[in-house]
Design brief:
Length: 504
């Protein structure tokens, strides 16, 4: 069956404009969906939505199941009667950067205030929905809230630094603290309820506008997370809970010393014995939230780069065999054969990875920047538009790339000359040329970062792989989405058969 041609925009919700210093599920998210509709787009791709820790990276989430409280909209809490406008007074924040050190404490204060107000009105119209949420999500929620309450009790210290009876989850100690921290546990439950309640309303609105949402599952989880604390047996850890080996990738296009991510690695043999229950739960949970799921670092399911924990870079590692198709057979058996997946297969890719993707029938990724940039080395696998396939998702760039304009400014005269000739352009609007090339490709789905639609330079990079500071902070200005921009994007999207017909 022929699949419909679609296109969409990659924009993490934190990058939306907001008077509260960080984008959220409030009015600007609805405004963005309206822009997608007007501009002929059908997809909104987000980065992982879990709670973040040190470095603010969505790929180092403190939970594979929980939501990031920073994405809860204070404006919607006011409308729900959970905050008074005077309680949610706004501060002056940077318009183009998320100041996490200022924003997060203020957001968390507002959420605590909202919980207090909820408790003062026990017959609030959200009461039944909250109770239903706690009952239905208890399978992950109870470990999550206890982890966060204990983390607060120990002033943010990693769980491996807690008293050994809590680190090792001695039942008597956990029960004692559940009683002592009952108020804090309920407050965290309420935060998670608000996150999913607001998100589901946004998802419903997106559906009403014909917009599908693409989520993102990082293959690994953070060491200091509720998942690793509650199930250390699933990971390669020592007797004190510390990783013996960690995840990353060897030197590549992004970094000369590779990337040492630091995530603990799975004990795949033990996960297999449990029929991969963690991954089944993770997929089921994510598939409820999104219409399509991008799996980050898909290569890791075939083989993964294992780095000794004491190494400070990713250079001295070795490849280890992953679960391969065995995992996906278990997922299909539990969830059905049609898994809504995009396989992120960028970087050093082996024939084994290609074979698995082909066997599973998942669309894989192609990045136009790599196609043009690799011409210097004569790479025959370059992602140039004429070499792409229908069952691929073409990107101008990803959250790990420089923006297209920033990338262009760094290219050699040879690469620029080739692009001039190939794209039939003078390069003055190279970001639009690349968007148009993606739209015109044969790929069923084309995605472009919002920065490329706006024509922004490297100052708007979302992430700089191999660095730990200044990432994940970019914000879009309130006046960014003009009607002229929507019309232009609709025109070129429609030209290549990806836009829905406008209503008469």
């Amino acid at each position: 069956m022929k699949r419909a041609r679609k296109s969409g925009i990659l924009l993490h919700p934190t990058s939306l404009p907001s008077p509260f210093g960080v984008g959220d599920f409030g009015p600007s998210a609805y405004w963005f969906i309206d822009f997608l509709k007007r501009s002929g787009q059908k997809m909104w791709q987000m980065l992982p939505l879990g709670p973040t820790g040190f470095g603010d990276s969505p790929y180092q989430s403190l939970s594979a199941f929980g939501g990031n409280p920073a994405l809860i909209s204070p404006q919607l809490l006011i409308e729900a009667g959970l905050l008074e406008p005077k309680e949610a007074r706004m501060h002056s924040y940077d318009a183009v950067r998320v100041e996490y050190d200022r924003v997060i404490p203020h957001k968390l204060h507002l959420l605590k205030r909202a919980y207090i107000n909820y408790k003062l009105h026990p017959k609030h119209n959200l009461e039944k929905k909250f109770k239903d949420f706690c009952r239905q999500e208890a399978w992950w929620l109870e470990d999550f809230v206890l982890f966060f309450a204990l983390k607060e009790l120990h002033e943010g210290c990693p769980w491996t630094e807690w008293p050994h009876e809590l680190r090792d989850r001695v039942p008597e100690a956990l029960n004692t603290h559940r009683q002592k921290l009952s108020g804090e546990l309920e407050s965290h439950r309420f935060e998670q309820f608000l996150f999913f309640y607001q998100y589901e309303k946004l998802h419903t609105y997106a559906k009403s506008k014909g917009i599908e949402l693409i989520g993102d599952i990082p293959i690994f989880v953070a060491h200091d997370s509720s998942d690793v604390w509650s199930h250390p047996e699933w990971f390669l850890l020592d007797s004190e809970g510390e990783p013996t080996v960690v995840a990353g990738v060897p030197p590549d296009y992004f970094s000369a010393t590779g990337q040492r991510w630091g995530n603990p690695l799975y004990d795949w043999a033990k996960l297999k014995k449990e029929n991969y229950s963690f991954w089944v739960d993770r997929f089921r949970h994510t598939a409820k939230m999104f219409d399509l799921i991008r799996i980050d670092h898909f290569r890791g399911f075939v083989d993964y780069w294992e780095i000794p924990a004491e190494e400070i870079t990713a250079v001295n590692g070795e490849w280890k065999e992953g679960p391969g198709s065995d995992l996906f057979d278990a997922l299909k058996k539990a969830l059905g054969s049609d898994l809504p997946v995009i396989a992120e297969d960028l970087g050093i890719i082996t024939q084994g990875v290609r074979d698995l993707i082909e066997k599973l029938g998942f669309p894989n990724m192609a990045v136009l920047q790599f196609g043009f940039g690799s011409m210097q080395s004569g790479d025959p696998t370059a992602f140039l538009p004429h070499n792409l396939k229908r069952n691929q998702v073409v990107y101008t760039g990803t959250h790990d790339n420089a923006t297209t304009l920033g990338w262009w400014r760094e290219q050699s005269a040879q690469v620029q000359e080739f692009a001039h000739f190939y794209l039939n352009t003078d390069g003055n609007l190279i970001y639009r040329d690349m968007v148009r090339a993606a739209l015109g490709s044969v790929c069923n789905l084309a995605i472009f970062p919002m920065q490329d639609i706006l024509g922004l330079g490297s100052e708007a990079n979302m992430n700089r792989p191999g660095t730990t500071e200044g990432n994940w902070q970019w914000r879009m200005r309130e006046d960014a989405l003009s009607e002229a921009l929507a019309k232009d994007l609709y025109m070129i999207t429609s030209l290549y058969g990806r836009a829905p017909q406008k209503e008469v």
